[in-house]
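Quick illustration for those who missed Monday's session on complexes.
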Amino acid sequence: MAKAKSIYSCTECGASAPKWQGQCPGCGVWNTLVETVAESAPASNSRFAALGGTARIQTLSEIEAREEDRLPTGIGEFDRALGGGLVAGGVVLLGGDPGIGKSTLLLQALAELSAVHHVLYVSGEESGQQIAMRARRLALDTKRLRLLAEINLEKILATLQAEKPQVAVIDSIQTLWSEELNSAPGSVAQVRECAAQLTRLAKQTGITVILVGHVTKEGALAGPRVLEHIVDTVLYFEGDTHSSFRLIRAVKNRYGAVNEIGVFAMTDKGLKGVNNPSAMFLSQHGQDVPGSCVLCTQEGTRPLLVEIQALVDQSHGNPRRLTVGLDAQRLAMLLAVLHRHAGIVCFDQDVFVNAVGGVKIGEPAADLAVLLSIVSSLKNKALPTKLIVFGEVGLAGEIRPAPRGQERLKEAAKLGFTRALIPEANKPKHAIAGIEVIAVRRVEEAVDRLRELD
Ligand code: TYD
Ligand code: MG
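Prediction with magnesium ion bound:
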């Protein structure tokens, strides 16, 4: 028998190289290449068959375009992240750190669905007993919730073909293995092959498949990253394991809007949806403290108030710039803008910035809040009470508008904030009751106006 050939594949993007290299030739990330066994292509060229067989060529106008029927899971916040519910034949990837609550959420969702629909929970991680224990603790109705403890892909496919459930959960994709490949479960080749086969089955039969994927920082297991292009919807669980709040964010959705979030609290009775989460990421100080600024951010269709905290402290040696939940590169840029346009220097200071509550903020409209929290910490002077801030900062020192400014202001007013420092272009035409708007065009102007306020 010929010696098994090794190839090196990237745990981030799945690209492969014949030799080990420090940097992935595909995505340029360092130290992600791991040795895997080179696989001979499986007989059925399954990777290319995700659309479920070819059809004759049609014009788009011939094809009846209808809205997909949604299958609500009965868990409102989960449905919101999905864009209204599950879609027949759709494949959803739910990724997140181990222990964040993926299995808990899906068990709750399937229990709800099982009241009227045919469902199957395939577990490769926990035994039937463990899952039954959890379901009992969550007080779920499990009379019609069916379970299969199995990791062999071929057996799972055969069971799904025979049973034809409407919704199937695979917990987790990293534990499955296909007999056609020699590599270990969790390797890039296995994860990709198993996901491709399950996707093909979903498209052919109309079964909705939800795949659970663990995200590992070390990249020891193939990350769900390699699956993002195969599946229809990618949801990620975010949250600080030390706090009880959890966010589900849609990062890709062929059936709905992205960046829509669902908000949950982990309780002793499982995950509970939080219907009005806008004030959740405010830390409750007794009084105002320097270095804290409340940002009104927009996640999907929903405004959220998030406290941004900065600590600026005398540096010893190389000044450090560290962010939690915000982009570190952008912090460096903001510090340069602050120096150049407002004359405030931080090059002999360590700067730490944190978004409270483990939330991750990607939108540039957070810039102004980050900047003002830094100024506040540096001057050791608290920002005025009941102030919210949003706005993007440009390299020329200009303050650019944020999308949906009105909604942000209304939400802030609703939560009892009385002043808003915002971009001039976001100034509402008609005053919003309860909130005084301070509109600024430039960074230096924002810093000046802050000084006037108390
Ligand atoms: P789990 O769903 O097993 O995580 P994952 O599948 O993403 O790895 O969640 C496990 C964590 O959730 C565990 O640390 C305990 C906690 N938990 C609760 O706090 N309350 C509950 O009711 C349940 C079921 C779990
Ligand atoms: Mg789990």
